[in-house]
Amino acid sequence: MKKQLLTGGILGAAALTVFGAARLVGKIKESANTVSMVAATSGDSGLNMEQTDSLAEVKAAMAKPASFSPACVESTKPSLYIDSTAIEVNGQTLANLSDYQSADTHSFDAGISYTDVDGIVTFRGNNFRDTASYGNTQIKEGKITDLWTASTGSITVGDATWSGSGWTGQPLMEKWSKEAKQSMNMYDWAKEKDDLVEVIYACMDGYVYFLDLETGEPTREALFLGYTFKGSGALDPRGYPILYVGAGYDSNEGTARVFVVNLLDCSVMYTFGNNDSFSLRGNLSYFDSSALVDANTDTLIYPGENGILYLIKLNTSYDPAAGTLSIAPDPVVKWHYYGTRTSVASYWLGMEDSAAIYDGYIFMSDNGGNLMCLDLNTLQLVWVQDILDDSNSSPVLSVEDGHLYLYISTSFRLGWRSNSTAEVPVWKIDAETGEIIWQKSYECSSEDGVSGGVQSTIAVGKEELSDYIYVTVARTGGQAEGVLACIDKNTGEAVWEHAAAYAWSSPVCVYNPDGSGKVLYCNSTGHIYLLDGKTGEVLDCHQISEGVIEASPAVYQSYMVVGTRDCKIWGMELQ
């Protein structure tokens, strides 16, 4: 394992970048959505708003690494794990991979700068996949209180019935501008409600639901698309009224695909991914991943379980005053790969989890035990790390001491590594080289069709929880058991563990204005736990279902929303 890099100096570098010659005496504290100045001026030193354009510059500087030049080392050479790759542009496969160069330069900033939208626009919030909460909570009593419920349904395809909200199943939330709302097919009262935050929830019954965050009242008619939606969908980070949502299973309507939906009138503007001849998995075309959009280049970035990464130039035209929206996708670029372990029986191709991106590099884990860093501008692999098994855990990026790291885990698919139990590591990885910094392993069991290990995405602590990560590990002591583990970022040692029924749902960290942090998670017996993030003390245990909660919650200020497999969407308040 590689020793952890301690480059330091990011505070000073950021201060110099943003403030020029000014001396920074106040402590800059980053939260999930804000940057605040704490304590501290003497004489003419400290934060001078005349010396910086905005606090947005401060938060962007503080949240990015001091430098980033990814390259493989001997143990992470792509050729060790990937046999071949190919590129297709507008239906034509390139004869030479080296001929490809993106017409636009893709370069993402830190996750905190992904969107200025009030809300949660993609799974785990942004391109770092590091938050499922927006704003601050006002938790005083440490209680979870029910506010409302909304009913969902089920859909049957062949012998399979899909009900309620599944994995990953995170709701989206957006506080639309008044101008945008006036052109939407919302009910009149919703258009007129100034502080309306709309919950947009694609569910497994084939519907997309639109609800008022405060009351659960429908804001418009539900949209029936006829396909099971297991994943979380995504909204456009520019505030454009566009929903990107992929089907997780075939339906009576046809094979699974991605829908690009105009949220002015809920019309489908574009679909892709179904029966793709470029796929190496035949007609399998499931899409559980939650998309990202490169706002600067107007490009949709969408990995699929068919083993294809899609880069689609949308050519979006949106006039909010006129209430018009259109796209004209071109070019459509596709990249696929074939792994050294890939077979029909195991180590399959394809990405079920959601990708993370920084600068011009995308980080993806797949069904075949590969964690890949790919250059988005050349579509050349930079490094690949072996993560042992079918991974459903989205990579999460974190800047620490000026360096970019990645947290991830994997599952245990029965029969691949063992027919009984197997080690499931939680890894901290150097995002520049793919080298393992540390790993913390758990012995997990599985049964056919229901995997143990980590099906969730790791929560990276901030504010007073900035030394920790949080991860739910399933089937650790038996088929029904699991833990929520708080792990030290620097050492990889468990600080505390909370044992209960197993969970596939991803934990969420929330913060009061003073920086104090809580962590909440949902489990397979319908319970939601609220815990003190530093000590692991259980503040509340709240049951909303007799069955499993596979979906992951999202939190807007003190409001929390999550769906259950027994056909309910729950709105709650953290008090």
Quickly list its features.
six-stranded antiparallel beta sheet; 4 helices; 38% strand; disordered N terminus; five-stranded antiparallel beta sheet; globular; Methylamine Dehydrogenase, Chain H; 575 residues; mainly beta
Report on the structure:
This protein has 575 residues and is mainly beta. It folds into 2 domains: 10-63, no CATH class; 77-574, YVTN repeat-like/Quinoprotein amine dehydrogenase (Methylamine Dehydrogenase, Chain H, 7 Propeller). The chain is 5% helix and 38% strand. It has 4 helices and 44 strands. A 6-stranded antiparallel sheet has the order 4-3-23-20-19-18, with no helix packed on it. Strand 42 (554-556) and strand 43 form a beta hairpin. Helix 1 (10-19) packs antiparallel against helix 2. The chain is globular and about 55 Å long.
Largest sheet: 6 strands, antiparallel
Query: How many domains make up the coordinates?
Result: 2
Q: What is the name of the CATH topology of the largest domain?
A: Methylamine Dehydrogenase, Chain H
**Strands ordered across the widest β-sheet:** 4-3-23-20-19-18
Give the overall average pLDDT.
91
**CATH structural class of the largest domain:** Mainly Beta
Question: What ranges have pLDDT less than 50 throughout 5 or more consecutive residues?
Answer: 2-52
What is the number of helices?
A: 4
Structural class: mainly beta
Pfam family, one: PQQ_2
Protein name: PQQ-binding-like beta-propeller repeat protein
InterPro entries: PQQ_rpt_dom (IPR002372), Quino_amine_DH_bsu (IPR011044), Quinoprotein_ADH-like_sf (IPR011047), WD40/YVTN_repeat-like_dom_sf (IPR015943)
